[in-house]
Amino acid sequence: MGKDGLFIPWTGKTHTRFHTPGNALWLHGIWAAFLIISGSFDMLADMFTFVTWAAYLLGAVGIILLRRKMPDRQRPYKVWGYPVTPWLFIAFAAFYLVWRGEI
What we know:
Helix content: 55-70%
Number of domains: 2
Pfam families: AA_permease_2
InterPro entries: AA/rel_permease1, AminoAcid_Transporter
Subcellular location: Membrane
Keywords: Membrane, Transmembrane, Transmembrane helix
GO molecular function: L-amino acid transmembrane transporter activity
């Protein structure tokens, strides 16, 4: 995001030796340490859980969208029970995120 100009440009700087976004990793580590030290570990765990389930939800939506946009594309992996399985997962993930009060 720093490289694309969507966040602080300083965070997009790539480490010369490891080729990783070193400044962004430092910032992330400092923020996580602050949440842990402040006694907000539960908040950190809740944020991680929310982001993880949101990513899973978007991944399942992506599967359906890509299969509709590119129906003739060769697929090395097939989703078991498609399209019922992804729709059930989307429904569960959406219910979970709304039920938790995160959205």
